[in-house]
Amino acid sequence: MLWREKKYAWFLLIFLWCFGFAGSLSRFVISYYQGEITSSLGVGRNFLGTTWSVATFIGALCAPLGGLLVDRFGVKKVMVLVCSCQILSIITVLTLQNELGYFIGNGLFAGFVGLGASTSYVLITSWFRHHRAKALAVLGSSTSLGFAVMVPVLATWEGLNWIKVYQVLLLISLIFIPCIIFVLREHQKADSKDEDYVTAMSSPSESTNKPAAKWLTGMRIFTKMLRHPVYLVVAFGILTCGISMGTVEMNLVAIHQQAHVSTAMISSAMSLLGLLEVFGGITFSFLLDHTSRTKALAILYLLRTAAFTLLILHFPVSPVLFSLIFGATYVGAVPGAILVARESLGGTDKNMGLHTGILLLVHQLGGVLAAMGGGFNFDYAHNYQILIGFNLLLSLLVSAGYFRVQSHRKTTTAAESLAQ
Fold first, then answer.
1. pTM of the predicted model, to two decimals?
2. What is the distance between the terminal CA atoms of the chain, rounded to a whole angstrom?
3. Secondary structure (H, E, C), 69-95
4. How confident is the prediction for the chain on average, in pLDDT?
5. Radius of gyration for the chain, computed over Cα atoms and rounded to the nearest angstrom
């Protein structure tokens, strides 16, 4: 039953979901107001792509560091720091309102928000025990549903512009800080199996509270991660997911526009994408909690392969079908991969920040590659076909990788059963 979890766990999920929903305004303003922003600042769209890539790259580098800070100082302190960076970013954009201000605010300062990439994952996995995948999927749906709701509503709101949207984002960030301080509670108690795992990974002399010993333990865990074959499949899948999501976030509207899709069709397809992200994510979360997670992820990437096949062919119904298929897989890939990696490395919560931060680093780097690759593809070929084809191929390879992991696990289980 759902109520096998603590009541505060569900309250925490609702709390984080509400702010994620409101925070989806940042996704909306970047996607919808590209023309207005470039006109106001007197820049080209390559400038926006470069700024977005710089922020994503800095955020990617900050993700593992943020994970270590979470493990060392706790989630609350890191979230306050991240929210302060967000406020500084928005104030810079609103105060300067020029090319330099936008780059510093949305390129440099916004990148430091990546320090908090692992915070929500750590909170959810520490408070939830029986429904982790579902909780992560529901949390991931907040920005998706927010985007689906806000695109048709705000797009028809007369007098609204990108400056006013950033002002609303600033207000949300200011409200979030006292909520973090007075509402958020960290789950301090670790499972016994987590303690056993950390003890096994550390030598007796490293079990002290010395910072050097903790960093050494973290490096040993990182080395183990790189040597684990399942983790390598997960990392490749996370990279592919980052490329796919970066392609959709930064280039999907442009892909449809280049294919001469009507504005009404684009608006409908983007809203449908957001809605399907919610329902698809929740559906995959049930598969992740109640069936083989590697099999569910293999199916997920196979569906993405089909979605990019439809997109590269540019059928009249491709925008809608792509949103239906890709949207259904949007939320499940990252939480599923994090859970698979966690379990393959021993199931520890103690170093969850480090594990999650490294995977999110790889994911963000994928987004950077997609943003830059899309720009180069369009500048030299005046289309996005190479980028779409690259996504198609990578998704197919990841699907095959997860199916191979699933097949190997079945073979291992069968051999163990025969041995008994």
1. 0.67
2. 33
3. HHHHHCHHHHHHHHHHHHHHHHHHHHH
4. 77
5. 21
